[in-house]
Design goal:
about 170 residues, four-stranded mixed β-sheet
Length: about 170
């Protein structure tokens, strides 16, 4: 009877000691360019930190020289994080942006994400959320848009009017 009693108690308290099968990961997004020495230093630091203290780090590298399609993603991230980076590397760790190779800042950002209670979110999720909240920007580069049509009409009037003035002046 005692064994059943202890088994029931164990089953009741087991959820308190449940260790999640999926570990919390820390996503690090880094925009780089092939041949950039600062990018290589940042990637080496992330690899070192992952192998020693922070095995939960997942590094997503976006090399814009190898894959030019990542330039658009680079611009989206800059817009969402409200920054104006002028080069690489640019790291996104949770809500933090780090421009350039700044070892101390990278370490601090990862340490804050490593805390049990942290506000580190996936940078891609943050960007998607921020871009949804921004007002839609009309595509003025479309030659068939109303703004472009007004521009073409004004240009046409100026060309025709200028032609009439030139013809009247010389003839």
């Amino acid at each position: 009877m005692k064994k059943i009693y202890w088994l029931i108690i164990l089953v009741m308290f087991l959820p308190l000691f449940n260790v999640s099968a999926t570990e919390k990961t820390t996503e690090v997004y880094i925009f780089t360019q092939q041949g950039c020495p600062h990018c290589a230093n940042a990637l080496a630091l992330l690899d070192e930190m992952k192998s020693s203290d922070y095995p939960e780090i997942v590094v997503d590298e976006f090399d814009m020289k190898v894959q030019p399609k990542y330039v658009k993603k680079y611009q989206e991230f800059a817009t969402a994080y409200n920054i104006n980076p002028t080069g690489v590397p640019v790291l996104y760790i949770g809500p933090k942006t780090i421009i350039g190779f700044q070892e101390t800042e990278i370490r601090q950002a990862l340490e804050s994400c490593h805390l049990p209670i942290s506000n580190c979110i996936n940078p891609n999720d943050y960007v998607a959320e921020q871009l949804k909240s921004l007002p839609a920007i009309p595509n003025s580069t479309n030659p068939n848009s109303p703004q472009a049509m007004v521009g073409w009409v004004v240009l046409g009037i100026l060309v025709v009017g200028g032609g009439i003035v030139i013809v009247n002046k010389f003839f």
